[in-house]
Design goal:
Layout lengths: L6 H10 L5 E2 L9 E9 L6 E11 L6 H12 L5 E6 L3 E7 L10 H9 L3 E5 L15 H10 L3 E4 L13 H9 L2 E9 L5 E10 L7 H8 L6 E6 L2 E6 L7 H15 L2 E5 L9 H6 L21 H5 L5 H6 L2 H8 L3 H12 L3 H5 L4 H4 L2 H17 L3 H10 L8 H8 L5 H22 L1 H4 L4 H18 L8
Antiparallel strand pairs: 1-2, 2-3, 3-5, 4-5, 4-6, 7-8, 8-9, 9-11, 10-11, 10-12
Length: about 475
Amino acid sequence: MTQYWTAQRIYDVLYRAGLLEAQGEPSSADDMKTQGKRYDSSPYSDDDIDMYVIDIEVWQDELDTLVVQDRLVAQHFADETCLVCVASTRWALLLRQGPPDAAIPRTIDQELLSALGEGEVLWKRPIPAPHWFDMRFQAAEELLAELEGAGLLVSRCELSDLADGGEPDDYIVESVEDGTFAPVELTYFGRPGEMVCVGLHVLLDEHWGEHTPAWLNQYFPWFDDYVTVSDDGWVVRVLSQAFDLTGDDLLLVAEKIQSVLGGVVRGGLSEGQDDKPAALAAKARSVEAPDTRGLLPENRRRVTVAALEAGEVSLADVLAAPSPEVDAVYGPQAHFFEAFFKRLWRTTISEAQLFSSDAIKATAHRRAEAQERASQLAAFVGRTVAWQIVVQQTGPSVTSPLWFAQARSSVPANEPLLRVGYSFLFSAQCAAQALLLRDLLLNNGELARADYSLLTWPWRSVFGPVHPEDA
């Protein structure tokens, strides 16, 4: 018999034991799920960082230990950041590592068991020692030299030439002086016969790692559309300012830079904007260049269920795949998933707020129950991989809508906006999972049909049908 009936009770016990220090994602409406964080000070950057995040889940009915283990392994073991899983027959904790420079206690699994007084360790991966990165570039000129070596035409300019879209902090001015920040213009041939000029901001900083783009926007906020290419300790921000570029133009430049430097491409928006260019909504998603270059025509991997299960391709490859290959993942609903995710990516803040209405919140508990039944159906018919992809594409780590990603990565995090985002993403996830199983839910009895209607209702009430044939 367990002593824990709510996720919040487990959180409170771990908080009093010093194993959690703050709430992460807010508790679900039925108090069956919550999240907690523990903080650390980076030995490399001296910044306060997340040591780890723990997702806490409880469920209504007592389950056999093997059933719990099979379910948790199927849903979470593929995530290599999930270092520890502790569970009983009624609850589970999933500990995920924070940034690589966090120092996680090597006995954290035993500390969790000791604090809770029950449960067992289902898995424990080796706890990584904190580590940092070696700076690839010591000066902005070194980065620019690589671009020039690849045949890109780069010309230096003054900071004032590329500052109309924002206000640089004194730190940026000092970085110009020490050679770790450079404002430049890049010229290339875009559409046939058309020469295009774009502005670039190049910043290096050994303390910021993968968060360099966020810190650049902190010290030099930009109020026009932009796209970034970045890796540990460096970022190139591609600007539309003064050149009247479309989202496709920005992404084309970013992809050219990525093909030379590697790194990750991300879209960006200034604070206060609710929408973004259509091209960014559909395309500006994180794709690591080394994983996709030169593999197939158009730099796309062929995405199959077998390849996903074997770990040969990533979720980013799924997002980048041409439609025929998406069919292999989403089956008969693939065409409708493309439209669904494009609508999700361009959702504005004001639209997302509609998903926080009292009427929609009141259905959260029943939707969670329907979601669990749908999960079992997905596993039964062999759509577990597709189900997990939907979870990833509608979970808290999404990079679109960009207002949500920026609220999550801002320092400090924008908690009110995050609450709006979590409510919206939960409704989006329910609708996407129902769409994945639509052909089965609508032909599997009254309860299954009712579950489809319940899971899609918030989305339908705001945006209209999830599927063209929905009433």
